[in-house]
Amino acid sequence: MLSKAKLKYIRSLERKKTRNEAGVFVAEGNKLVADLLPFFGCELLIAKSSWMATQGDIPTKELLDVDEDELRKASFLKTPQDVLAVFRQPAWQLDAADPSQQLVLALDGIQDPGNLGTIIRLADWFGIGHIVCSEDTADVFNPKVVQATMGALARVQVHYTDLQAFLTLHGEACPIYGTFLDGDNLYTKTLSGTGILVMGNEGNGIRPGIGELVTERLYIPNYPPTQETSESLNVAIATAVVCAEFRRRQQRSADTV
């Protein structure tokens, strides 16, 4: 049974301040919770008895059997599933995001939780283990972001820092790529398997101060080039296109060795 106090606690975690003070985040759904359980400490898990019966031993500090109505009241989803869990926030270390050894994704002011969650999922797909975000980027532990990652949060570490300072620190040792409407054609530009790839805000793109630190300006050309088309791509879609090209080049280089 879910007490009023527990229900109030869960609902309070929709707020960033409360999540950070408690050091936790919420995940919902049968597959998402199952994917995250091996990677994050679980403080509280509420679920229908039918879900519990299929899981065996569930690693959580507190386990509550709830009915559909109780789960609906606690859920942040329009259509709740069978389980909701409160996990501990991980202590990811920014030093691990070393762009001299790997391709690191950097996000400059991404605001939409759905975009951020999708980008984390894309990073997971393309083997990018670290995303470095400006401090005003959407919160990775927002329930909408967590939901959109579809479990990729278990494998991709997301860091928040002064992005300009991060780029300045690493700019002399590795290339910094960024997408611009006046950049060089992505498909003819030389690309490295290491460095930093910067993606900008949904409406304004990469900020001028960040743009000044970008050493390799990229452009995703439309096709055919003479045809009138949309003004720009959604940032998550653009990230997918650019990451796919980076990895295609790496694979081609590996195949020729």
How do the strands and helices of this protein lay out in sequence?
Elements: H1 4-12, H2 16-22, E1 24-28, H3 30-36, E2 42-47, H4 49-52, E3 63-65, H5 68-74, E4 83-88, E5 103-108, H6 113-125, E6 130-134, H7 143-149, E7 157-161, H8 163-170, E8 176-185, E9 195-200, H9 208-211, E10 216-219, H10 235-256
Parallel strand pairs: 2-3, 5-6, 5-9, 6-7, 8-9, 8-10
Antiparallel strand pairs: 1-4, 2-4
Helix pairs in contact: 6-7, 6-10
Keywords:
single chain; 257 residues; alpha/beta; 6-stranded parallel sheet; 4-stranded mixed sheet; 10 helices; elongated
In short:
The chain has 257 residues and is of the alpha/beta class. The protein has helices at 4-12, 16-22, 30-36, 49-52, 68-74, 113-125, 143-149, 163-170, 208-211, 235-256, and strands at 24-28, 42-47, 63-65, 83-88, 103-108, 130-134, 157-161, 176-185, 195-200, 216-219. The model has no long low-confidence stretch (mean pLDDT 95).
